Amino acid sequence: MAYVITDDCTKDFHCVDACPTDCIHPKADEPGVEEASQLFVDPEGCIDCGACVPVCPSNSIFPLDEVPPEKESYIELNRAHY
User: Fold this and answer.
1) How far apart are alpha carbons 30 and 25 in whole angstroms?
2) Of 4, 23, 62, 75, which is the most buried if we count CB atoms within 10 A?
3) CB-based contacts of 49: which residues, under 8 Å, 6+ apart?
4) CA torsion, ordered 68, 49, 81, 61, to nearest 10 deg
5) Domain limits of the chain?
């Protein structure tokens, strides 16, 4: 897993649009998007390009090794989603 989305995610989908490998879900038109508390990065599809980070208005996307200690639980939450 290269990137982790945390609880500050506002589900604005800018990261989905910026991702060249289509690895951030759920998308606006996918089932479960309303129920999802945030978006998630598919660890198998992520190529570690970082395109999602600068477009995130809530600054909720972190490289795996830079996730703040208070948000480390989101690493496992992201893994569990997939």
Assistant:
1) 8
2) 4
3) 20, 21
4) 30
5) 3-81
Name the band, by pLDDT with cuts 50, 70 and 90, for residue 82.
confident
Both structure tokens of 55: 């477009």
Q: Residues with Cβ < 8 Å from 67, sequence gap 6 or more?
A: 4, 6, 74, 75
Cβ neighbours around 18 below 10 Å, total: 16
Distance (Å, whole) CA 31 – CA 66: 30
| CATH match of 3-81 with 3.30.70.20 | yes
Output the average pLDDT for the chain.
94
Distance between CA 46 and CA 31 in Å, rounded? 21
Q: What is the spatial distance between Cα 37 and Cα 7, in angstroms, rounded to a whole number? A: 8
Residue pair 11/38 in contact by the 8 Å Cβ criterion: yes
